[in-house]
Amino acid sequence: MVETLVPVVVALAAAVCIPGPNVVAVVVASVRDRRAGLWTALGVASGDMIWATAAMAGIGVLLAQSRPVFMALKWLGAAYLLVQAVRLWRERGEAPDAEADAPTGRRPFLRGVLIDLANPKAALFFTSLYVSLLPAHLDPGMALAVMAATAAVDYGWYLSLALALSRTPAQRAYRRASRAISRVAAGLMGALGLRLALSG
């Protein structure tokens, strides 16, 4: 079992560390407010787990074979990322989630989930990861072990990122350059949305 899980964990760990919409969302939320950052991290990791579960169930293969459905999801996802880019651009560096969502963290959590689900290519990624690195026939115990390992990598990485960037020095740096950071984050989010829209 260990020999099967290690390649999956290594490949997934390398993939989640690559800057993308998830990382941008967690970084921006965390330097503003620790609670919002942690909830955003939980959201994007949960979104990843939805795609991973879909891939394990074979939905990723269906998306790859159904071009119209995949394109519709891709355009909807790109539109959502562009909307988030505009929202970041228009903000003045305040931390609206810190006060409005302090009791539950519902808004940053849902935003994190939606940002992750905005990229249907994640389903194809998990599908290709599992197909290329796992045996053709998985017993239920092995499938659960793979999902547990996937969850450990995803939640571990994003929560660690949120904790690291919500420390006082990072938040002080953010307060000194909040508008510039929001604008840079907006540009990155917009670029990622356009990349998704224009990709094949």
Task: Spell out the key features of this protein.
single chain, 200 residues, mainly alpha
What's the total helix number?
A: 11
Give the termini separation: 35 Å
Helix fraction by DSSP (H/I, runs of at least 4) = over 70%
Let me know the average pLDDT: 81
Return the structural class: mainly alpha
What is the string of SSEs from the N terminus onward?
Answer: HHHHHHHHHHH
Largest sheet: none
- The total count of strands amounts to 0
The radius of gyration over CA amounts to: 17 Å
Question: Uncertain spans, ≥5 residues at pLDDT below 50?
Answer: 95-103
Strand content: under 5%
Q: Which descriptor suits the 3D outline? A: globular
Question: How would you sum up this structure in a few lines?
Answer:
The protein has 200 residues and is mostly helical.
Report on this model:
There is one protein chain. The chain is an all-alpha fold and 200 residues long. 84% of the residues lie in helices and 0% in strands. It contains eleven helices and no strands. It has helices spanning 2-16, 21-32, 34-57, 59-65, 67-90, 96-100, 106-117, 121-133, 140-165, 168-176, 178-198. It is globular. Mean pLDDT is 81; it is low at 95-103.
Summarize the topology.
Layout: H1 2-16, H2 21-32, H3 34-57, H4 59-65, H5 67-90, H6 96-100, H7 106-117, H8 121-133, H9 140-165, H10 168-176, H11 178-198
Helix pairs in contact: 1-9, 2-3, 2-7, 2-9, 2-11, 3-7, 3-8, 3-9, 4-8, 5-11
